[in-house]
Amino acid sequence: MKSRYIIASITGVSLSLMGIVGAQAYSGENLAKHAKITMTEAQGIALKARPGTITDEELEKEKGGSGLRYSFDIKGTDKVVYEVGVDAQTGSVLENDKESSHPD
Description:
Layout: H1 2-22, H2 39-49, E1 52-61, E2 68-76, E3 81-87, E4 93-98
Antiparallel strand pairs: 1-2, 2-3, 3-4
């Protein structure tokens, strides 16, 4: 009987932690309900504008465009990190420049 209780407790704690950790897959995900463009669509737009590998992504309120943008750090084929901003309402590329604060 004790082992069933322990297993049930561990399962409950694990599910609770999964809910906490899995609640936000990327920074700003809580803003996604206000976006017309999904994260997946924005990733495609960003990678078309700047081929490479996405190393960081977020959805944020920021000046310019509609005021809601996806921001991606993309390590380009030249090994330089670029910041690419995609408007979350229109899908327009708002920024595509070298990341100024990246240590590489």
